Amino acid sequence: MPESPRRTGSSSIFTIPSPLRQLFSHFPLVTYAASELPVRCPDEESRTKNTLHVFSSPTDAPRGLPSYNPTCLKWQVFLRLAGIEFETVASNNHASPTGVLPFLLPRAPTAAIEAAREPEEKGTELGRIPLHHRAVLPVASGKLEEFGLSYDGGAGGKRVGDVEGVMRAEVYQSLLDTRIRCAWLHSLYLAPENTELLGRLYVNPISRSYVARASTLHSLRRAAEAEILRATGTAVIDAGAIYAAADEAFEALSTVLGEDDWFFGSEKGTDTKAGGEGATEKEVDPRSKPSLFDAAVFSYTHLLLDGDMAWQDRRLAELAAQSPALVRHRDRILDICWSEPVK
Amino acid sequence: MAASLLGHGSNATTSPLQDQLSRPMTIGHISVVGASHTRHNFLNPFFAPLVSRDDLTVADVMSGLQSAISKLNRYDIFEPVETASLSKSSSPTAAQTDVDVALVLKEKSRLYFKTGTELGNAEGSANAEGHARNIFGGGESLVVNASAGTRTRSAYAAEFATPVVPGDPDTRLSVNAAATNVAKPWASHEEVSKLAGGKVSWGSGYEGGGHQLGYSMNWRTITALSGTASPTVRNDAGDSVKNSITYMYLKDKRDNPMLPQSGYLYKSVWEMAGWGPLGGDVSFSKSEMEVAAALPVPLPGVKGKTGVSISGGFRCGMMYPLPMGYTFMGRKAQPSRINDRFQLGGPNDVRGFKQGGLGPRDGPDAAGGDVFAAGSVNLLFPLPRTGVDSNFRVQLFANGGRVVGLKGRSKGKASGEGGGGGMSMSAVKNGIVGSVQDLCTGLPSVAAGVGLVYAHPVARFELNFCLPLVLRRGEEGRKGLQVGVGINFL
Q: What CATH number is attached to the domain comprising A143?
């Protein structure tokens, strides 16, 4: 019932006198079954699955195809590498609890549904509480690593490694977060030749209205510009310097990867759970597993090398393509995560 | 016109007054004093029918002036004037019947600012308003206001309005723009909206009512979701542009809108969004209708007004998804978003329920519905020892309603996906038919109670003790006291 003890308890400053409480307990006189949700609302079936909300097109998302946003793709790949089953949903930043995609809506835990049932209603018609009658708390991207690492990949043991504490990883992470990200922002948001691509990915999905599109394009560009200036600490944007820095960063990444399958593979702490029998063919060498860092590198290299992205200004794409090691690394992850033909 | 004012012309016995009124009169000169900022050609149409005519009687002139004055008063340019003064024409060439008319007007201040704080409809706000009157000397006005509050987080609005038909204060054209940010706690989000539009209104006349035809472009953003926001709200979060045409008709024949004792109100609104050249992201036809009536109740042994009245109201609405573009056939329509659906419940419509407390719910959120109906019956009587004309009443009420979402979920995933495929027009039709059937066959959610009503000239206040009688699972009833402040109650 809507007026649960929780509610009466919360208004304890205005304690309800007991005769009134007795009167209240008789109301409502009749309670019917819940109203059905309107068509557009997510259905019951989608609530039984983990859903990762990412930047994606409405046609790509249901097929689980890679997101076109590096941060979203990083987490999408990480969760896939971790062996977590989830559906992708095309979304936007407004839907996210943090204001930034991605986020994950965990599937409705059946135990919680059981617990939500009031004892006397179990087994009755009213006892069948639809999944949409409980709140689902989203997992923001900051908590996704924990979510992925805590997942026990079944028979294969944990499938992803943890680069926490690997000192070098932090250094290289900052290369990704500053140099490569700046070049990415410049390439996608500011390079005039890529306006069409930017429009297709981030502007057109906003609205069909020209006014809304023009305004969005403008604010996206201003935001990218501000972020680049903040990261480079300069007063003006020097495209040459940005791409040169990105080139160095790719080179450094390529060197540190070397002939290994995964970044920092040999440095990771030993995993007590070695791969057991019944490991799937996707299983990787237990001593060397992909980590969040691999996903992060892939999120840029894949999007730069992917033919579907249709880069017109190919400066950054060509820099990424220069390193055979990074190209192999990208192909490897693509093969693991998207080897099955898409539905 | 004169005849109606004077009563029955068939009355054979002519009184001296009537005799006086039916004498011919001509206006030699009309002088309007004190309208220094008002254009000559704006004032002309009011008096033109009266001057340079020699077939008028005294009564014609009087009623003509009266009508001109009452029209002028409705422009809100001048301090209210009652009469014009007539004097025998002093011109040497004047005829015997000539009079001069002098009308002394006082223009209201052409520019004023006010600030204030308000408490109403479960919200507190502070606002500032700038008002420019009679900008070009033709009754044009510009109103700019800004407010910030607990529910309406921020609102900035500007409206420029101008009369369009000379001599007609009721036909007006206006253009407006607004930017608002409104918290919608019943659905765990805030809606940011930027809109621009224009409208024409006409036919309001002396009594309340009239027509209004408007066009607006509204860029809405559902944002700032709370942590517990449901998948329904998350799914609809983000931007959508609604381009729509709205037609509204209102007829208000109630004796007092805040505390009607007799009379009726009829209001209908029809909105068409997205179809044809309108474009935008949402496409639908949305209609809403409201009727309300009040009847005084006579009491045996009490002469005249008893102050007891019974009033009732009924509202209903339907939103019908349409395909984008020009054709209806063979195209897919997108089912309604949360910001286009109807919400029902709260102290101003179905009392005894929380705001948005009725209808389909997704977790903590009111999802709203595509079809709704709500009605109420109220019995009002004066408080003991207060007069019939007191602004206080005790009310007994029973009200109920239903909001039903568009059906079609059971037909598999295709329709439920919303974002991509959309629904075929036949699926929409079946869905609407199903929703209306559900609305009509199911018992409404009902609440009843007793309360105190205070009708202030600008708003009505209600303090009710409510008990929900019939609920649907998940609906949020309100047991106990509920406060309502507003101008439009069910």
A: 3.40.30
